[in-house]
Design a protein that fits this description.
Tetracycline Repressor, domain 2, two-stranded antiparallel sheet, rod-shaped, EXOC3/Sec6_C
Length: 746
Amino acid sequence: MSEMMDKSGGNPFEDDVSLKSNRKLGVMNKLRRSIRRAAEKSPIPVGGKGPKTPTKDDESASSPPPPSPNPNMSRFGDSLMKKGEKIRRSLRLPKKDNDKTDKQEPLLPVSEGSMEEKEEEKVEEEKRMEEMDETYELPEIPNTPLSVMQINNLIEKEVLEEAHLNLLSMRKEFQQEQQKHADDSPMELAKKEKDLSLLYGNLRKKMGDIVRDSNSLPSRNKGLLVPVARIIQEEEKRAEEPGGLLDSWMEAWREAVAEGVKAKVEKVPLEKKEQNVSWLAIHLGHLGKAIVEDLENVKKELRWSYPPSFKVFSTYVRSYHRVVGQHLKKLEVEVTEQKDLYALLDWILNRYKSERIMGSLSLQPDMQAENTDLQLEDEFLKQLKEKYCRKVKEDMRSSLDRVIELEDEEVWSERKALRNEENILKSLFPMDIWTNVKSNAVNTRKIDAQLEVKVLSSCLEELKHFPTRFESEFRRRCSALRPQPLWTEYHIAYINSFTSLQEHMEGYEASCPGEVEGLKKEVKGLVVRLMEVLEEQFKEDIQPYLRRMMTRKWLTNDDDFKQLYSRTNQLSQHCDLMMAQYVQGFAGRLHLHVVKQYVGQLMVNNYSCKNRKHEKAATKIRHQWTELRNLFEDMESPHEWLHPVGDELSNIIGQKNKADIQNHLQPLVEHYPDFSKKHLVAVLYFRGLMRGREHQQILQKLSALKKELNTSGDDRNQVLFGDMQVTVNTDCLSNLPFSCFSFLNN
């Protein structure tokens, strides 16, 4: 590098003049004075109309100064005016008429009206601003370049145009020497090429720093952007010539813009999530504001320092798309909460392109031709949505676990009765769950309609497992309550509650049919199991009292029946608190069970009424049957076909004349085709008729009626006697001929 400095001259006076006369172009007053002095020495007047023939006086007055000891001085002096004029054109400076005398205008008082006028003038001035001309005229390239050190100093001091002109001169020398002496001095060429590469690299780095900081330090760098733009244009033209940098200067400029944008983004305040639960929302708010302010500055200020081909505003917009996308990718790693994932998705999909940021009115109309979408990595948005759905599902599970915990803390542990809402027992949790799911759906819909469906699917998929988990905890915590009335109320309340929950979720069947169907299946299974537990408990409760029906004690004591009636009545009252769609089926199953067990006692007990006790027994059966029938009617049992059996059996049992019994068989056979001879034998035994001619005639009458009415007893929709156990007392069969046994089962 020192050899290059020696070869190029190294005159201190020349160096000082060159450096001082080419200070930063932003110092406009010094530049104007230099241009004016050069114009005064020019043979062509600034305001003249054409060349003037010089006189002797003129020649003597304008005789040139003694020649500089260095030939470069005359070159700088002759070209100074041209450079100044070209620089003025690049900067769009107005020409100053030397014939006009500067006059100081009188100071005027400042008023509110004048301030408003100045603001309006400022707005109008911004409207009149135009981008730099696309074309330009390159100043004269020096014949002999400055030394490497001098050029590097110019670069460091940001005298960019002068540095670049000398680089072009040095590059020209290199090209000439390469053509003439490529084989003679390869080492010298390689050294000069290395120096060129070093200086060009330093120039590009300095220009990159200026561009990067241009929006952060506009007052300092604004004036430097003009030579930066012209250097880039010139180097793009000379891209194919030897001695320059291989990669694109325009692309390097875009990278510098992106680095400046990245620096802006990184300066946006970002609190740690441990310090502030709203850390992400606050950061995204500041980030959006910083983007708008930066682009506003580009639109109003920076763009005018570049030619149109640079598309400055578009470049900054695209840089923000890319840099912000990368920034959000880094942030996503720290985002773990559902609210923060929601805020991030909302910002990406909606807020970034909204009027708050890229759609801001202050950026119009320039943004109308721009894409407003962030530039995100492939699959990033898809992965972010999946992460959000997974978090929604996790939070849903935690929420459902909390529902069970609250039910335990507030209801089961406290043995607290559940609320009665419009005569329906219910828990509060279905509304809580529905509100949670609805909130997720509504909020997600604001982000993206397709994402809403995925979120609903996640919620419903998790909700599908809730009935079984709830049931398991309920059984574990409340088994000790069985068979208290509160235990029954809990079962009825949860039958209603889960049904209510299912009805709420059915509103999403169009969006998530598979998930809703899965939930319905689980709820149905739970309701069936809760019903079965209630039924089994009821059957277990009344079984001791039913066993003692149709006995000697029963005939003289009503305690067992009163207990039977009381338990059934209590369940009937509980049924009033059950949802209507379950009451009939539940009541019907219990009705059928009570009837079978009550009537069945006639078939299995060995008690036989004697001494005309059958009349008392028939009266009692009729009375008790009426009470039971009324009770099940109140419960809205659908099995009305069971109502006649008690009265019809009472008619048979209560007949004084044995022969009259066969006259009361037909209604029983018509209503209950599955009533067979073995059942009749059992009824007759209870009535006290165990043998004799009348007994045989009654059985024969039954056979004739069944044949006549063609009743096979195969109608499974109304089976009462068909699966009823019958114990035949052998005493009553001792006097029957052997042939009679064959028709007992008919």
